[in-house]
Amino acid sequence: MKKGYFGQYGGRFVPETLMPALIELEAAYLKSKKDKNFQKELVHLQKTYIGRPTALYFAKRFTERLGGAKIYLKREDLAHTGAHKINNALGQALLAERIGKKRVIAETGAGQHGVATATGAALIGLECDVYMGTEDMKRQALNVFRMRLLGARVIEVPVGSRTLKDAINESLRDWTTNVRTTHYVLGTVFGPHPFPSMVRDFQSVIGKEAKKQILQAEGKLPDYLIACVGGGSNAMGLFHEFLNDDIKMIGVEAGGKGVETGEHAARFAGGSIGVFQGCKTYLLQDDDGNVLGTHSVSAGLDYASIGPEHPYLRDIGRVQYTYATDDEALAAFELLSKTEGIIPALESAHALAETIKLAPKLPKDKIVIVNLSGRGDKDVQHVASIKGIEL
Amino acid sequence: MNRIDKTFKKLKTQNKKAFIPYIMAGDPSLEKTKEFVLLFEECGADIVELGVPFSDPLADGPTIQRAAERALKNGVTLKKVIALVRDLKTKTNIPLVLMTYYNPVFKYGEELFIRDAKDAGVDGVIVPDLPPDEAGGLVRLSKKSDIATIFLLAPTSTEDRIKKVASASRGFIYCVSMTGITGAQLLLDGSIERSINNIRKITDKPIAIGFGVSTPDEAAAVSVISDGVIVGSAILRKAQENSEEGLKDFLLKLREAAR
């Protein structure tokens, strides 16, 4: 495979100004993988700061309600800051320190990656600016305030669709301008090489832990892994460790108001191959190559493109991709809250929605692990307003 | 020989520098763009850059972003810009370069794009988010059709990068004046001169400087150290003032400054 590529997907499609920084970052990342001190520090912080390993929890009442396969939840919602995003943000903050960058920037959709980066920056003592679309700032007001509390500056992006993709454009523009002093903490397995591989590696701790935990709990590997896919980092984090095992994996995209309405973010159902924000991958675009608007009830999945390793895994038949609509995700959000006392992030609720469809069809001795990638506190206000309740 | 090469050769014998204005195609209309190009020529431009609108122009500042948004609203596509070039070629001989992001080209199909561009009379292409590392196909196809592939160098470019970019570039090398996006503030502190000197050690291909050149004084300062000067955002802003006299005066001053 060509360097920086997954099959035909990936690559490094950025302005020349950024090329030297990406080459430097790739070298630093490869070095850090072998650097015992770096790994020791990372593992130490994962344990004492993030609170890893996160639990693998058998969802007994949820399982009983669905009446089929046993459902385990990988509790990334219990990680410090409330989502898997911290695994990557902390790793990259450590790396930024190693390459001598004093400032980090990040894009954020749901606000979880912004909060995680602000947290990593506070921990290490780096300056931090987070770009966020106006639309997302509205629906994720709580996280905006959290980032500010953590000492980050939140910069509103009022252009384009005013969501995640526009926040990434602005981050890339900032990085192009300040590349000498700044590291861009990209939040998902997306963008130019080495980000897709590097972010996956920082997230792969999810799958490594889950494998150990399920073997301990059940004495065997699971039959299914299910994760939601926006950019796709929580999914890659869970899947990566199991890619060579004989188990099924399902990635769940945002079906929005239904793929037929055009208001969705299901890249595989409605997209085609394109080159966007640094890499070649699947993209929702028109016939002339302009990027289409997207919709999802969950800001973290509301994105026109998908990390390049995903279409590769789909092409070779290793991972199956489907989608869940807003309504299905909202129903899953409520069902898990009521049956287990766990309020999931609306992003993770998409993975649960697929589980609700699949589990009842499976025999009771089958095991499903769902990545509960984040907690839903940030979504409570948004869900209330959808239900017409004023808080 | 490609007409861009001819232009630089001629300028060299005259001891002059290239003046390369940029305009976003289709803002406010394709008809108006045609008039702009002819006005540029009348005011002494040597080459014209035609921007192709894209939904996510990550190398551009607010001025060009907004121009692209307006052009997209007008339904302008890569196909229509190629048709505009075909039309312009019946009226002028000035070399025309398309500045487009890569995805519209990828979606069009590289092979078909180069064929149609050649057929319409496009002289060169600049794709700011396509470094030579990813441009193997486009470079090969362009070479066969004698369309210049103009790549960018930045103040951050290392010796390795300069070698790579210089070797893939034809027509000229687009040297970005600062680390930043189009229309940002130019910094005349000697750093551009240092990067140009580094590039000259490696290649003798013509070098044009762009990004942030917004006044005749700045155009004069960068043209002294290069072979040409590219002005985009500042011309767009002037064009929006809707005074043909004002625009003409600005273009003539830039032309005068670029020597």
Report on the architecture of this protein.
The complex is a heterodimer of chains A (391) and B (259). Chain A has helices at 19-34, 36-50, 60-66, 85-98, 112-124, 134-139, 141-149, 164-178, 195-203, 205-218, 233-239, 267-270, 309-315, 326-340, 346-358, 380-386, and strands at residues 5-6, 9-10, 56-58, 70-75, 103-108, 127-133, 153-157, 182-184, 224-228, 248-256, 272-276, 279-283, 320-325, 367-372. Chain A is of the alpha/beta class. In chain A, the strands form four sheets. In chain A, strands 3-4-14-9-10-13 form a six-stranded mixed sheet, sandwiched between helices. A four-stranded parallel sheet of chain A has the order 7-6-5-8, with helices on both faces. The longest helix of chain A is centred in the N-terminal third of the chain and has 16 residues, at 19-34. The model of chain A has no long low-confidence stretch (mean pLDDT 97). Chain B has 259 residues and is of the alpha/beta class. Chain B has one domain (3-254): Aldolase class I (TIM Barrel, Alpha-Beta Barrel), CATH 3.20.20. Helices cover 49% and strands 14% of the residues of chain B. In chain B, α5 (102-108) packs across α6 and α10 (216-224) runs parallel beside α12. The model of chain B has no long low-confidence stretch (mean pLDDT 97). The interface between A and B is large, with 36 and 40 residues.
Index terms:
heterodimer, A: 391 residues, alpha/beta, six-stranded mixed beta sheet, four-stranded parallel beta sheet, 16 helices, 14 strands, 44% helix, B: 259 residues, TIM Barrel, nine-stranded parallel beta sheet
SS-based structural class of chain A?
A: alpha/beta
What is the β-strand count of chain B? 9
Strand content bin of chain A: 15-25%
Radius of gyration of chain A: 19 Å
Roughly how many Å is the radius of gyration of chain B? 17 Å
Mean pLDDT of chain A: 97
Mean pLDDT over all positions of chain B: 97
> CATH first level of chain B: which class?
Alpha Beta
Shape of chain B: globular
How large is the count of helical segments of chain B?
A: 12
Strand content of chain B: 5-15%
Largest sheet of chain B: 9 strands, parallel
